[in-house]
Amino acid sequence: GYRVSLQGNFFGRNHMYITFPEYNPRRHIKLDPPLNIQSNATASKCQIWWSVPWYLAEILQYELQYKEYSTSWEIALNKTLSSSLPQIEIEATELRSGIAYIARVRCKVSENEDSYHSQWSEWSQTTVFKRPGVPKLSENILSTRTMQFLFIPLSFGTLLYLFWNCKLSSRSRQKASPALMFPRQLLSFSHSIICTMGILR
């Protein structure tokens, strides 16, 4: 330990003031910020990692701060890591799709460490990342699915129309047999339905 004092000339007289009677540098450390912060974002999560001196890696704790790129750091989100590993994963649900984000990290000696004590370091340099957008279905796929959903009600309506049309026409036509006309039209329409189903598939 050390004794820290201040000495100076005040009002023509020399004075000495004891600032810290017992000063232990191991209890008053300010670390350098983490280095080489990098990121990799996918549709499911964003991984962020950085580096620190190897001899400090096991006794440090970290705080991550991130925000949308266009906003102020005053409204940034903070995450204090429980692990001493120099990395973190952010779930995609915490990020807006297609929006650029910026992140930075700082470190200090863990509260669980008895040998040393420190304050937070300055913030590291930043890394920028963006969650990829969810791919949209093509217009052809959307059009095919729409046709599949409309196919059943349209087919049912057409069958009703043909049924009533045959019923009305059978009254006005005496030569043609109603029992034969409707099956022929239904057979023709069924063939059209089968062809349409093949095209949609």
TrEMBL record:
It is found in: Membrane. It comes from Psophia crepitans. Keywords: Glycoprotein, Membrane, Receptor, Signal, Transmembrane, Transmembrane helix. This is IL9R protein. The chain crosses the membrane at residues 146-164. It is a single-pass type I membrane protein. It comes from the Eukaryota. GO terms for biological process: immunoglobulin mediated immune response. Residues 33-132 form the Fibronectin type-III domain. GO terms for molecular function: cytokine receptor activity. GO terms for cellular component: external side of plasma membrane.
